[in-house]
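This is your field. Pick holes in the following sequence-structure pair:
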Amino acid sequence: MRVSVFFFQLLLGFMFSTTVYAQISYYQVEIEHNDSRYLGYARFDSSNSNDMQGDFCLIPVKKKGDAVQITIRGASFQNGLLSMKPPQIPGMTTSIRSVTFAHHMAPLFGISDDRETTDRWSYFSDADTEDGLSENGNYISIDLTSIPDNIEKINNRHTDDYKSYRVIEHNSKLRRVQLSTYDGRSKDDVVTAEMKHRPYLGDGGYERGRIFAVASRAKLGDLHEFLSSEGGGATFDDPAYGACGAPFVLLQISVPPLLEFYYARKLQVTGLVLTAYPNALGAGPGLDSFSLQDTHLANLFRASEVTLEDKDQQLWKMISQNLQAFIQARRPDFKQSGTIERLQHGNQVFAYRIEIVGPALSECTRNRWEKLLLQIIPQGISNTDTVNLLLQFQEGFFAPGSPDRRPDDARLEENRISDGPLEQLQERLGGFLLTRGFSHIEDYGVVSSDVVCKL
């Protein structure tokens, strides 16, 4: 079973009004060009509909890079049609001078119901078109979604799905839990409770380690201060270049896994956000799921006198030992020059993002180095003392290099490993874990016993 990582709708809104009084407007923006993707915000002065001017404030999300601020001149809105030259993003080349956008209605910040839609303008070019943006199979897509001046109505999200959720009990029955039950509880208490049941948000589940929130940009400083005072390691990055001045922004807040609903409730009642919610995923392929029966570890997680940090370290010790054993079995020369590093955000617990840099693991090539990002997420501990984990290789890069000499970091960012080899490596890791006492939680998971590299 392969991963279809949730495609987050961070489209940064665009609304071009034909009314004479609407001169400054703000938008959510998403731009994709081949394997590059940028998200951000835009600001436009539409006082002259023949020569609108503005700025795009964007960050790269598929590849590492710096945030960019791009000035736009000469956009036009005539006869109900929006036209503009594509933003000149570094690395994005196109000979086209102007594109015309299609108009449709879309949910506000991707979370509103059908009655609360706003204007979205979209352009997409694929390899079959002949408009000048598809030379040599290149493509580009641009989405611009409006951010109205008043979005207080999305507060109604506090009164429906995100004020309660369903829990799957061990007998597979569902019951509904109110988020208000988190009020006054400690993080340790919530983690212990979440280990005993699995929250349910539709067939696709929900994203671990991250929640979403919509907030006034003017309150971001107060929100940072609140999360810091909470002491749980929850944090978020401010929008690039002040979101081009957009009054409201959509935030991705990194939180410790198993505390997604706890933090959503905390933020809902602070008055610092318009809404906050765990990230529901669509049905479809998911992460690979494994379990390991470990009574010692299960008892440790149930012990109220053991701190979250100690529980986190014990779980990391188990994960690290098995991961190192897999890498040693696959590529014995890895330990001579390779590194395995946990990327920990502050004092965040139960978030295991692991950077693996060393001789190639996804394919058996002697003179090749790879940089891999693996995430492992604890799902809970069952009544039978089994520890449940999700794992996924999120991305990888490669560069030529002898096994005993690490290439420059810049070279290790140049060549992306395609999904196929990463999926095969994940299957091999899964097969190796089965030999060490792990079990597949789902029957339809795919594993491989072909672990050892034959160089």
